[in-house]
Amino acid sequence: MKILVCISNVPDTTTKVKFVEADTKFDTTGVQWVINPWDELSLTRALELKDDPSTGVKSVTVAHVGPASSEPTIRKALAIGADDAIRVNTEPSDGYYVASQLAEVIRKEQFDIIICGIESSDFNGSVTGGMIAEFMNIPSVSAVSGLKIENGKPLLTREIDGGRETVSVPTPFVAIVQKGIAKEPRIAAMRGIMMARTKPVKIYEPMEAQSLTKFIVFEKPRPRAACKYIDAENPGLLIQLLQNEAKVI
Amino acid sequence: MSVLVYTQNWDGKFKKSSFELVSYASKVADMLNVSVIALSIGAVENDELKKLGNYGAGKILNVNNEQCKILDNQVYTNIISQVALKEKSSVIIISNNNEGKAIAPRLSVSLKAGIGSGVSKLPVNLNPFTVYKRTYSGNAYAQVVINSEIKILTLAQNSFDLFETTNNSVIEDLNISVDSSLLKTEVKDVQKMAGKILLTDADIVVSGGRGMKSPDNWGPIVELAGLLGAATACSRPVSDEGWRSHDEHTGQTGKIIAPNVYIAVGISGATQHLAGISSSKYIVAINSDKDAPIFEAAQYGIVGDAMKVLPKLIEAVKELKK
Amino acid sequence: MTKQIIFAIALLITLGAFFFTINRIIGFFKFTRSGFPVKNLGKRFSLMLKIAFGQTKIFRKPFIGFFHALVFWGFCVILIGSVEMVIDGLSGTDKVLTFLGPVYKIIMGSGDIFALLVAVSIIIFLCRRIFFHIKRFEGIEMKRISHIDANIALSIILLLMLSLLGMNTGYVEYKTLTGEVINGVYPVSNVLASLFEGLPATDLYIQYQVCWWTHILLIFIFANILPYSKHFHVFMSVPNVFLSRLEPLGKLTNMDNITTEVKLMMNPDTAFAAAPSDTPVERFGVKDVEDVTWKNYFDSLSCTECGRCTSVCPANITGKKLSPRKVMMDLRARMKEKGPLMVKNGRDFSDNKSLLRNYISEEELWACTTCNACAKECPININHPTIIIDMRRYLVMEEASAPGELKAVFNNIENNGAPWQYSSEDRLNWTKDLGIYIH
Predict the structure, then answer these.
(1) Which CATH number fits domain B2-182: 3.40.50.620, 3.40.1000.20, 3.40.50.170, 3.30.450.20?
(2) Which of A168, A216, B78, C32 has the greatest number of beta carbons closer than 10 A?
(3) Fold match between B2-182 and B199-320?
(4) Between vectors from CA A32 to CA A29 and to CA A36, what angle results, nearest 5°?
């Protein structure tokens, strides 16, 4: 079985978010780029499945849509343990465009399980995984918090309101995963980092595709009102404020 | 032309979020001067369907096929897609919850419709169609233009008020045929957690962090939550240590919630936790460390020992209820 | 003549057995990796004089340490007497080293006194072990066999001392009765001889001979048991001190192949270039016995399971699973298990077990605070932290396996340049109100 993990390149969590060019573009100066946290968990789970000989998973590939400047992030994924990588050489303009590119690559390369993180920490779109599945006319399961392979058959756990379901769908399918899919992300071992240099990264030129949305301007959230402190000796005042002032209880 | 709103049901019942969706759809429809059509999939009684009319739905479509019994993303997408085309919907409103996130992207490709995901306000512009959404995990907001003919908007939870109107709705049972080969999902097992108030639905949340020092100290949190009718939550270290269930973990890689008030007890306020709660209307922080970052995000704060403050809060709530 | 032939045969058998054992152990050493070069001989020599012969680290436990020092010094002196016994046995002489004159008297005299002192010390040790519960001697790694091993060795030493005293007493009394010259002085045996007054000379001669043979044969047997016992430290301790790691405790040894790799990665031109032959084939860190250095293995053979290291380990004291003694004992045991298999099937042979996990768990390794209290306390300068660190290096650098909190630290250092989750832009916030001007 071949697994594909789609990864996106995002600014690290501690980055101070700023905008330039009249707030139309994200300021990339001094930004540390990392693998999207949900994609990191996806990759971890894929590698865990590959490590277990009983699953039949033979390879884990990562795919990314982005320019050459994303290569370090792809190398990081290879260092963590992916066998090879695919990069579609174009700017990721919007979810629809990215999904079109990835779907095209998947059609050419043939994978059994495609794993996507439920959202990316930069645009919080939550769209790519589902779109890929629809482009390829294959099933998708979302809010997946568990993925295992028993007797050669994949079993997914998906979160529903008030509980969870175990479902199965035929391969190939797209699993859109969230927290719980792996306990904590894997790090790259020294051995992995050294071997990453030799793993293949296949570059595809983009196919003709459209984007349907465009970010036109950004704004920082309005600063919240400063915190109103209540004396620890008299917490009852808090309850009064919540009821009368905030009107939330 | 119409605005189509898909309202999920839970065991045949709608929730407050369903009515928020219809209210939102109704306001969007007003902006576009078109009608609102609500779509329900699955077994829902007419009495329940009628409620959607209270919030502005003119026509309520009821689809209940064999293939609808479980959520298969391809089947549901197909149904909504067919309805949207039939009703010539130019805007489709779906919730940004788990089910919505599963269906909306597929629908987008199926109808070649651009998505504005996680919107929290009405569209800021109609021409070009521009929506307002959260980005960078809550560190910024953006205006996004959708330039396709059909637009899909997924509404962030608890971000829009309810607007009641006179109910002039008409319920129509719709027969949509779905190719049975499209149903590929098989449900092997269902585990439901009985009784507890769902974190994602709750208006009030009481949450504990590592500052609580031990799982044995959770009693006051649970008691306060019970008195307030709140759900309980926790920060990541707490669920990692196994003190509380993973379902309670709120944060960047946990649940992202938007209650009316989030009471954070013994939580320092690390960036990843804040990413999960930043959309809360009010944040209350109780922490013994006056320099804890949580106080920068909170509207109300108490600097003190949680184990001393909580009992007093509990007393105050009990007084209130009298 | 017969006596010489029998003695020669006994000696040959002993030496044969001994060399067989030593050869076997050398074979195991061949599987280990090279460690630090042995330089600075002058410093090493003075270290040996101070720590090994001076017993300075043993005296860190002053009361019981004093008795151990007595035993060690006694052994050193009595060793000379034993050498004389071997020469006597082979050449048929009697007390051949008498020609050394006053020196001989000093050697024999102190040997005689030490025999009594050592015997008393051993009795104290045995009573302590058998009748008192000494915490340091207990532990998950201290199985029944360790206690039996200790008691047997102590008992043999006691017998050696008793046979020495018996030998000297018999000699003194026999020579007194026959009016012959007494070679050497035997202050203790002189006193003890009064117990044997009244016995005929022939009986005393027999006592002398029997004790002589008992003593030397016990030495032969003991010498061959030692390599298989925790008491191998009798041979290994002094060399182990001589071969100590001379770097300050707490200084880690850098890994050369990693230094090269880091330099490659910091050079933007080579950072992402494919260089297949660059990747070192040999393993990072230690997973199994073939990865340890010769010194690690030497340490494990020298370890006498005294437990002083574990008794000062802060992790162990606070209930963690780590026991530095156990790390040493496990290494020795694992080599005992895998060594013969590698000799038979080659260095690359795998029995699907390894030192890591099958013997030493990850929990033990991560509990170490690298405080070096163990290395500081060890009376023969065993360095436990180097092997613990090397096993951690294997875990992180080969398997990317580390406790979650450490993974977070690694990520933070990689992304934020600091162990914490703060933006690198905030690094200088702490200077804001201090009136410090940052260029």
Answers:
(1) 3.40.50.620
(2) B78
(3) yes
(4) 125
- 3-state SS track over C304-371: CCCCHHHHHCHHHHCCCCCCHHHHHHHHHHHHHHHHHHHHHHCCCCCCCCCHHHHHECHHHHHHCCCC
Report pLDDT for C271: 61
Angstrom distance (rounded) from CA B322 to CA C19: 92
* Chain B residue nearest residue C423, CA to CA: B271
| Beta carbons of C421 and B271 less than 8 Å apart | yes
SS3 letters across B231-285: EEEECHHHHHCCCCCHHHEECCCCECCCCCEEEEECCCCCHHHHHHHCCCCEEEE
pLDDT for C224-245, tens place per residue?
999 999 999 999 999 999 999 9
Give B-chain residues touching C421 at CB under 8 angstroms.
Answer: 270-272
Q: What are B138-197's pLDDT values in tens digits?
A: 889 999 999 999 999 999 988 888 899 988 899 999 988 888 888 899 999 998 876 678
Among B71, B145, B249, the residue with its CB nearest the CB of A214 is B145
Average pLDDT over residues C428-439: 83
At C270, the pLDDT band (50, 70, 90 cuts) reads low
Which residue from A minimizes the CA distance to B229?
A249
Q: What is the pLDDT of residues C372-383, one digit of tens each?
A: 999 999 999 999
Is this complex's ipTM strictly greater than 0.85?
Answer: yes
Q: For the whole model, what pTM was predicted? A: 0.86
Distance from CA of A186 to the nearest CA of C (A): 7
Instruction: Name the one residue in this structure whose structure tokens are 């410090």.
Output: C436
Neighbouring C-alpha atoms within 13 Å toward the C-beta of A27: 14
Residue with token string 């929506």: B131
User: Which among C284, C410, C416 is the nearest to A14, CB-wise?
Assistant: C416
Helix, strand, coil percent content, chain C, rounded in steps of 5: 70, 0, 30
Domain ranges of chain B: 2-182, 199-320
pLDDT of C276 strictly over 60: no
Kindly tell me if the per-residue pLDDT of C261 is higher than 90: no
The full DSSP string for C47-110 is HIIIIIIS-TTGGGSHHHHHHHHHHHHHHHHHHHHHHHHHHHHHH--SSGGGGGTHHHHHHHHH
Instruction: Decide: C387 and C292 in contact? Cβ < 8 Å.
Output: yes
- Nearest C-alpha in B relative to C404: B240
C405 to chain B, any CB pair closer than 8 A? The answer is: no
Q: Provide, as residue numbers in chain B, all residues whose Cβ is less than 8 Å from the Cβ of C404.
A: 240
- Confirm or reject CATH 3.40.50.1220 for domain B199-320, answering yes or no: yes
